[in-house]
Amino acid sequence: MSTETGHPDNLMEKLVSLAKRRGFIFQSSEVYGGVGAVYDYGPLGVELKKNVREAWWSEMVHRRDDIEGLDAGILMHPEVWVASGHVDGFTDPLIECRNCHRRFRADHVEGDQCPTCGVTGQFTEPRNFNLMFKTFMGPVEESTAVVYLRPETAQGIFVNFKNVLDSARQKVPFGIAQVGKAFRNEITPGNFTFRTREFEQMEMQFFVEPGTDEEWFHTWKERRLEWVKSLGIRADRLRLEPHGPDELAHYAKDAVDIEYLFPMGWREFEGIHNRTDFDLSRHQEHSGKKLEYVESHSGKRFVPYVIETSAGLDRTMLVVLADAYHEEEVEGEARTVLRLNPRLAPTKVAVFPLVKKEGMPEMAERIAADLRGRYTTFYDVSGSIGRRYRRQDEAGTPFCVTVDGQSIEDGTVTVRDRDTLEQVRVQADGIADFIRDGIESEPAA
Ligand code: ATP
Q1: How many domains are contained in the chain?
Q2: Whole-number Å distance between alpha carbons of 399 and 424
Q3: pLDDT per residue over 401-429, tens digit each?
Q4: Which residue among 184, 239, 264 has the greatest number of ligand 1 atoms within 8 angstroms of its CB, and so is best to mutate?
Q5: Which residue is closest in CA terms to ligand 1's atom 26?
Q6: Which residue's CA is minimally distant from atom 10 of ligand 1?
Q7: Pairing verdict, β 333-338 and 377-379
Q8: 385 SS3 class
Q9: With 70 as the cut, is the pLDDT of residue 154 above it?
Q10: pTM, 2 dp
Q11: Whole domain around residue 199: which residue ranges?
């Protein structure tokens, strides 16, 4: 156990290995030796990711009448990225060690010693390296057809501000939310899925009247932190970290990060930013189209300010996984368990026949087939019952149902709770309700 973070020792290595073993996360193109900082989500990973995404969408879109959803294209008009400042300014300072030729982000290296080979004083002067991936649109690879893979989802929202405002008949203050892929050619990716070159963002831009922006910034900061806590993340591993004046992005009046105490220390996984009217004004200038709001009762016109909440889906998932990972000893045996919020757990219930005979597999299969319509269900007959439980503990499955000799006689089964390890006998036809109660008694995610 690390005393600094309270996480088990070498947690990141353990997570990488569990993620692969259980089918959460694989390295991209692994059979070819892998490709740098891109990951694939396996059968359990894709479910967990979907559950985190849906929890966010439900909180940000479905439970509110003042936020609309959007799904904009990854490829956009190239002028979007000129207006947003990304073509000129979305750069990191790149330095290279003349000795080992490894490259680093200058702001990630302390002093003049190369972290890889240990040689000092051999860094090149920093040069600005643009993080946007370029590609070509149309059949001719010429410079006029250069387009970018979006490095953030936000710009798709800004350029659709008017479309959504008019079609959804919203009034300021209101927001637009979207979840989607973003791409950054990071110089020093790493720490598993913490910093990758392809990732998903969950962003919401809230359009407000200038002058009310500071209050909305405060409101969103508090609300986002509460949501993260509602996922079951330990409160003492969460903190709000305001940006100092010298850390603020060029467009921001105020910014705060939500940080988690990862195994490598405190790091951001969501940012809340007061972007002022920077983006809408820039798109207004560059497109020549008015992006103002006209208040219907007063006729007052203004370019709204934007309070943005910008979270990484993959990074939030890493927070969820790191926080859920526990090692413990049960009756003299080591147990690894993912104590995931049952609402987020990829598999809600596993069903086992105790042995492969005496009608138990048939009954267990019937139960699994019934449950499948309502809950993600996993049926497993192979290996000792202890091993089957342990596999589900590592997958974070909250409930395991076992059909045993008594089940055949009286129609009851045992349901084992992942966290308390308690087993209770339940009528087989009451399992779905039992599971529903178990999931719904958890804090809402
Ligand atoms: P950093 O300083 O870590 O590079 P940033 O401040 O540039 O991040 P934002 O542009 O504010 O990050 O992006 C918002 C969120 O998107 C981040 O909090 C993070 O969760 C996610 N994110 C950004 N870059 C990456 C990446 N390379 N890999 C995974 N997630 C990312």
Answers
A1: 2
A2: 11
A3: 999 999 999 999 999 999 999 999 999 99
A4: 184
A5: 195
A6: 152
A7: unpaired
A8: helix
A9: yes
A10: 0.94
A11: 11-82+148-321
